[in-house]
Amino acid sequence: MNLKKGLVLAFVVLLLLGALAGCGGQEAAQEPEKAEEAKGEEEAKEPESKWPEKTIEFVVPWKAGGGSDTMARSITKAIKEGNISPVPVVVVNKPGGNGQIGEAYVINKKGDPYTWMTLSSGQISIPLAGLGDIKATDFTALAQMAGDTLFLVVPADSKFNTLEDVVKAAKANPEGLKIGGSGSGTEDHIVTYLFEKAAGIKFNYIAFSGGSEVMSNLMGGHVDLAWANPNECLSQVEGGLVEVLGVTTEERLDSTPDIPTFRELGYDVVFWQVRGVHGPPGMPKEAVEGSIEILRKVSESDTWKEKYLEAKMLTPRFIPGDDYTKVIKDNEDMFREALGSMGLLKE
Amino acid sequence: MGILQDIVYHLGLGFSVALTPTNILFAAIGVTLGTIIGALPGIGSVTGVAVLLPLTFGMDPTTAIIMLAGIYYGVMYGGTISSVLINTPGDAATVISAIEGYPLAKAGRAGPTFALVALGSFVGGTFGVLMLSIAAPFLAKTALRLGPPEYFSLMILAMAALAGLAGSSPIKGIIMGGLGIVLSTVGVDIGHGVLRFTYGNVYMMNGIDFLPVAIGMFGMGEVLVQMQRLVTFELLKTKITFRSLLPTIQDWIRVRWAIVRGTLIGFVIGVLPGAGATIASFLSYATESKLSKHREEFGKGAIEGIVGPESANNAASAGAMVPMMTLGVPGSGTTAVLLGAFMMFGLQPGPLLFQNHPEFAWGVIASMYVGNMMLVVLNTIFIPTFVSILKVPQTILMPGILVLTIVGAYSLNNNMAEVWIMIIFGILGYFFKRYKWPMAPLILGLVLGPLAEVNFVRSLSMSQGDFGIFVARPISLALLAGGLVSIFYPLIKQILLRGREKLA
Amino acid sequence: MRQADIIGALISIFFGVFVITQALGLEYWWRFGPGPGFVPLWSGVLILSGGVLLFITSVRRPPDTMEPVNPEGRKRLITITVLTVLAAVAMNYLGFGTTMFLFMALLVGGVGRHRWYVTLGSALLVSVTFYLVFVKWLLVPLPKGVFGF
């Protein structure tokens, strides 16, 4: 057989195989659904739910090692250690495109009972800032797992010791104070705006690529102030390299009772970052309920509380189902309003 | 207690931890895994450490971090193997190594290259750890003084130094550099928070990462070139003798300053929280290409052009531990994951780490001396094994490499998008190679371009539009001046030479 | 080579103009400094001017000839390229392991014309090794096909 003939034959074989497998794949994909329907009927008779019976794929639309990835892996760890779920939950990273690649993957699994996805506040603001099309409200909200907040930090040798000092200096020198945060049109940017609005001042916001870059530029004195999540600056605070002027919660955090809130100092800045778990659009009811039950047990486990919430200085906030849907909706409205006033709304 | 006694005491404490049988064993496991992960394209140190992190659950924290750190710096050794042998960079920091390393391998000099790279890496890594043990807090604080203007000037220096690398056709080099910069602007613009050139495509939003581009252009492009020609390497005809695997005295002499320079550059860049091992390897390559006595060999297999950058990336990986351990600020993706690992074990990296957990901090540092020793041995005794890959017939080896480039590109983001980027640049790479368009400037534009842009925008935002910020700050001014000198270096050298001739 | 350089120059000019027109759609200047269009515009200018320069210098050069590609080589080249593209497409349906096995087999046997046992052996070795390393050990979620790998 000469080379050419061999290759032509090879192509044909490969194409055929591809086509066959394509059909086969679809069939295989359909079969469980059929089985699912059949089961659904059975379940109508039996009160006991059959969900889950397949591995749950837990999509993290961000890189391995990041905040969302850590949460997902902590959830699976708690599940494994506490034997919480009868089926394994496997973390899959689908990073890129500001989370949009992973989100598109989950959107395409419409109605799938065995897919979860992590969500952080950034995924709410990104589509509003015109950096993506998929909205947080497009997914089935399962449960908020934790709340994170922001500290306003200054270097230890800063001339500012209180929020009052900052506001006074900012009033004297509009846009003269440099405030660092991660990204443009992001939570850090939005909370800067909230503070500006509450105090009637204006900062020069400098966008950095991530939390650690913000911290090193703050410590190096390249910006005057910066926003940081508690766990991003804890070691520097304890080591006396930076000081916290205020926290954006309604009440002081239990873990840091000495740090005043913006609100008690007279500036109405309240900001929570959400960390939650979502399912694809149209996730079946039994899967939603089952998932919430698993996540509830996770949130009650010691592994979760000690190894994740405490270690990451997060606030325990388990909000399941419809209440969580409302949290996401409220957040979206708040972001939309803020970005609109900032001139950054690009829906 | 004096400073010296302090260091000796601390290192003594560290070695007493690092030299327990368990910790030696896990350091060995870590560096071996690191070498393997490094050699696999696509799986870099970030993914490697993140994915293998769960293996350490339940271990003693010190042992766990010793192993994970071992993976991190092991990758720097391992990445060289695939860059040199199959022209497919195993890790971002070893992309530049393919440029000189692969021609060396084709000339049958893979063995000596590996030996010298192992030595350079060892020197770089050990020097880095040494500095980490004696001056970490001071270095970290100094590094913080570099802000956006300095990073911008540093990128300009790097681009200026590398501008001369276009080889036979500087015009083509300029075009390729421009192309690299344009490609780097695809996706989300961090400085402005807008999308560029995405045309509504989710995958374009992700931007074009330089690794699938490099894997495609170098790896797949070379496979296409080789398969089209199907001429076997010279090496296959000559028998591999043990002697041919060893570097000659001339080689040693030739690379000695490259190692020193690479080590210094690598460590300094590594300590900076905003640069990292990849930039360090580029800068070392640029330096060698300017200062080498064999400048005409660059691009065709100049051994100092690989030994320097490899010393640099190892020194940089040790340097990156400095801000992470002393300030709690990770300077690279991998140190960020390592920081996460520290915290998972309840250890808070930062100013108090050395006070609160001295046996842990010094144990990890001491283990890095041990790990580097193991790596140099590992990477030397296995040279014959590595090189024997080239004995595989090309019609089997090349398809195997293709499979590897596909898996590698996929595993970058667990996505087919990177595979397509890799294939497109693989095909382009073939044409670039055939029609002599230099590929290095494209890679440089892709890597350095965004850093230059974002820091440019940031600096001007800080100064409210005043360009004076770049010259008013001494370090930034010095870097810019360095850039100017390196552009006009050939001219200056000529003038100096002429002056000397006149004197004589 | 001269001809190829002229074509390359023309492509660069075309691409440079394209980049410039696209960059003009983005804001050139921002509040304090360069806007999102600044860098794309100037890199477009760089590509365009490089293209023009290359065109001028190449046209002036005397015509020359390049080492021709032998027909066998060209055939291999096209085959491999097409097979790689096909493999990337098929991977989603057939799964990583199966596709790579077929891909290796076709390249080693078809293009490399090795004996069947060499073909089979190398295809098995490569696909199984990579499957074990990437999927089983490093947990890369490579596409699974109808056979499950």
What does this structure look like?
The complex is a heterotrimer of chains A (347), B (504) and C (149). Chain A is of the alpha/beta class and 347 residues long. Chain A contains eleven helices and eleven strands. In chain A, strand 1, helix 2 and strand 2 form a beta-alpha-beta unit. In chain A, helix 2 crosses helix 9, helix 2 packs antiparallel against helix 10 and helix 6 packs across helix 11. Chain A is globular, with a radius of gyration of 24 Å. In chain B, helix 6 runs parallel beside helix 14 and helix 6 runs antiparallel to helix 18. Chain C is built from five helices and no strands. The radius of gyration of chain C is 24 Å and the shape is flat. Chains in contact: A-B, A-C, B-C. At the B-C interface, helix 3, helix 8, helix 10, helix 20 and helix 21 of B face helix 1, helix 2, helix 3, helix 4 and helix 5 of C.
Shape designation of chain A: globular
Arithmetic mean pLDDT of chain B: 88
Write down how many β-strands of chain B occur, each being a DSSP E stretch of 2 or more residues. Answer: 2
What's the mean pLDDT score of chain A? 86
Order of helices and strands of chain B, N to C?
HHHHHHHHEEHHHHHHHHHHHHHHHH
| Global outline of chain B | globular
CATH class type of the largest domain in chain A: Alpha Beta
CATH architecture verdict of the largest domain in chain A: 3-Layer(aba) Sandwich
